[in-house]
Amino acid sequence: MPVAIITGASRGLGRALGEALAARGWDLVLDARGAEALKEAAVGIAGHGTRVELLAGDVTDAGHRAALVAAARRLGGVDLLVSNASALGAEPLVRLAELPLEGLRRALEVNVVAALGLVREALPLLRRAPAGAVVAVSSDAAAEAYETWGGYGASKAALDQLAAVLGVEEPGLRVWAVDPGGMATDLYAAAVPGDDDPRPAPDTVVPAFLRLLDERPASGRYAAPALLEAL
Fold first, then answer.
1. Is the distance from CB of 33 to CB of 9 less than 8 angstroms?
2. Residue 114 CB coordination number (10 Å)
């Protein structure tokens, strides 16, 4: 069975993607900071009968990243790495003039440095996979100038660039930066509390990610709404 590592898998998009891959027979290594939330998320995933390894920890910890890859190795390797764990930098979001620099550093450490660190840890296994792929979960804030989203958007723009270069440097892999579009997630609620505008649930966006896995287009940046329109 193919094996995927998904960070930030206890809720939102990470959890929905884990459930969809398990339904397809994938074995999974799932990460989140909260052990209880991760166990709760795994209940539905485990119902598909695939092997699921749960590792609670912080992706900024090099030892935790090594443990994630070691768990995948025990399952057979790494066919897919999904960097989904994200930090906002401030909750709720604030203008750049008010953004704590420590918050910006945290966003960069989680969203960029840890994502690259995990890729580097997993790269030998990804290279050996028959169809190795990396998914960097991006944001429209990486490409658009939204008030208060400057720190988070800057970190995601940096992640996009890392993914683009990795795709050039590793032509044997597929490296996709994916903007999932607006979703109803805890992350968004923390970013903009009180915003009651309707947003799609994360599971409605998952088919866009599955399409990438099925069709394996060239490495690059993709927007989930555009992928969904073609389904």
1. no
2. 22
| Phi/psi at 28 (5° precision) | -130, 145
Q: pLDDT-derived band of residue 4, with 50, 70 and 90 as boundaries?
A: very high
Banded pLDDT at 44 (limits 50, 70, 90): confident
d(CA 218, CA 28): 24
Closest CA to 85 of 25, 18, 23: 18
Q: Would you call 188 a catalytic residue per the annotation? A: no
Q: In what order do the strands lie in the sheet with 3-6?
A: 52-56, 27-32, 3-6, 80-83, 133-137, 174-179, 220-223
Catalytic residue among 146, 152, 188, 222: 152
How far is the C-alpha of 197 from the C-alpha of 220, rounded, in Å? 30
For the chain, how many helices (H) and strands (E)?
9, 7
CA distance 192 to 210: 29
pTM above 0.90, yes or no: yes
Short-list 73, 1, 34, 26, CA closest to 209: 26
Bridge partners, 55 (sequence order): 31
Taking 90 as the threshold, does the pLDDT of residue 211 lie above it?
yes
Q: Residues 188, 182: contact at Cβ < 8 Å? A: yes
By the 8 A CB rule, do 30 and 53 touch?
A: yes
Closest CA to 132 of 182, 170, 181, 75: 170
pLDDT higher than 80, residue 231: no
